[in-house]
Design brief:
The complex is a heterodimer of chains A (about 170) and B (about 280). Chain A is mainly α. Chain A has six helices and no strands. In chain B, the strands form two sheets. In chain B, strands 1-2-5-4-3-12 form a six-stranded antiparallel β-barrel. A six-stranded antiparallel beta barrel of chain B has the order 6-7-8-11-10-9. The chains are: A mainly alpha (about 170), B alpha+beta (about 280).
């Protein structure tokens, strides 16, 4: 077990705990909740094992579903996000992202911001689409997605800044 | 065969994704159907346990409001209970006001005393809330006392733990009644005196308020018989009653207003005067 694996396990547990204990209780305006637990998927090492990420995302989502009593909504959104993550990397950081040392948890640059934004938005729109599950509420879905995305994005950036590794490698 | 294995190996990521997506979508769709999924719910060991912990903390923060809500609800329920229809009694309905027998007013003990012979409690509501002298005071467990004095915002109550207090009480199963007094010895026990020797009493029988009382509704719990002995002078039973209430720990109480009390008392007074 190397330190990266341990770090990711700790991140998994801590983010999940924070989500369930704190962020699920926010209920801003009665329905806007941030979901910063997806940071686990976003911060997963760029060159890490993709299958492991998929499996871990699935479990992350399914545990969230257990706590939210929402069937498989979070699991679906997380699995999709984990699967399309490389595409988003390519979109934000350019085609050769794998050869650069891309690190999300660092100073906020336009590339990193665009990556966070597009990931959070994708996750949330799938989440709310499946959670509400009725096309007649499309405006409601969009509104929730928009508000929650903003909320989550801000929290993600804050969390990244707080836990930014102090020493640069 | 080789090709299939190769294919699986090459596309393992995609296949894993499709598999997991499939599972989660099935769960999602199941959760939206009428028969909810039993697999992923918060009622399981892990999430249930975590939620119980969260609830414990939240409950503590919310204790004040919750208590108040419960007390209010209880007041309504008690009102219903004491106004329960008696099939043998004919209730004349006043078309203007409707029939009202008993009312409960919610209040709170802000000063409790139990260490002297004449104990009084103080409630945090008075005449403004509709409390008048001689109203009965009960809580969820049983009787507490009788209102003595009232001011605009406060009321004092003669505790059952007061040697002056006298409350009509009966044995629940047999309807033999007596007077509830306190000998001033123990905060957990009161005495039911003047119970006829004919009464078949046993240790552990329940004592409740009697039908004679206009202060309390009948059948409010008081306690259970702890000891039975015969009074040497009067030859009546004296019962040592263990109170249901912990009189040293009182919170929310209900003050009972009997709308018919005045009528009953006037009638009785008139009868006594006529017979003299």
């Amino acid at each position: 077990m190397n330190s990266t694996v341990l770090l990711n396990i700790a991140r998994f547990i801590l983010l999940l705990a924070a989500q369930v204990l704190i962020f699920n209780e926010i209920d801003f305006w009665g329905y806007v909740n941030p979901y910063p637990y997806i940071l686990f998927i976003l911060l997963f090492p760029v060159n890490g094992n993709k299958s492991a990420l998929l499996a871990a995302s699935f479990f992350l989502g399914i545990i969230m579903d257990m706590f939210c009593d929402s069937g498989g909504v979070h699991a679906t959104a997380c699995v999709v996000l984990a699967y399309v993550r490389p595409t988003f990397f390519k979109f934000s950081f350019g085609v050769s992202y794998e050869y650069q040392t891309v690190r999300i948890n660092d100073k906020l640059t336009p590339e990193r911001f665009s990556f966070l934004l597009i990931s959070v938005f994708t996750h949330h729109i799938i989440l709310f689409l499946l959670e509400i599950f009725k096309i007649t509420f499309i405006l409601d879905i969009l509104l929730r997605t928009l508000l929650s995305s903003v909320f989550t994005l801000i929290l993600c950036i804050v969390v990244i800044y707080i836990f930014k590794p102090s020493t640069k490698r | 065969m080789q090709q299939i294995v190769n294919f699986l190996f090459k596309n393992s990521n995609k296949l894993l994704f499709l598999l997991l997506l499939g599972i989660s979508l099935v769960l999602t769709i199941q959760s939206h159907s009428y028969h909810r999924s039993e697999v992923v719910t918060s009622a399981n060991f892990i999430s249930g346990g975590v939620y119980e912990k969260i609830h414990n903390v939240k409950e503590y923060l919310n204790l004040k409001t919750q208590n108040e809500q419960l007390a209010k609800e209880n007041a309504i329920l008690k009102k219903l209970l004491y106004n329960a229809k008696d099939s043998t009694a004919i209730v004349v309905r006043d078309s203007l006001k409707g029939y009202r027998g008993m009312n409960t007013i919610i209040s709170k003990v802000i000063k409790n005393s139990y260490n002297v012979k004449e104990n009084y409690l103080t409630l945090n509501s008075g005449t403004k809330a509709g409390i008048k002298p001689d109203m009965g005071v009960v809580n969820a467990l049983g009787i507490v006392g009788i209102v003595e004095h009232t001011s605009a915002n406060y009321a004092t109550v003669i505790s059952v733990l007061n040697v002056k207090s006298q409350i009509n009480a009966k044995i629940k199963k047999s309807n033999h009644f007596g007077t509830l007094r306190w000998d001033g010895k123990s905060t957990g026990f009161v005495q039911l005196i003047d119970v006829p020797r004919l009464a078949n009493v046993r240790k552990g029988d329940t004592i409740v308020t009697g039908n004679e009382s206009v202060t309390f509704p009948p059948n409010v719990g008081i306690g259970v018989i702890d000891k039975i002995y015969t009074d040497k002078e009067t030859n009546y039973f004296t019962l040592n009653v263990r109170l249901f209430n912990d009189m040293t720990n009182l919170g929310h109480v209900y003050v009972i207003e009997n709308y018919e009390k005045k009528e009953i008392e006037e009638l009785e007074a008139k009868t006594v005067i006529e017979n003299e």
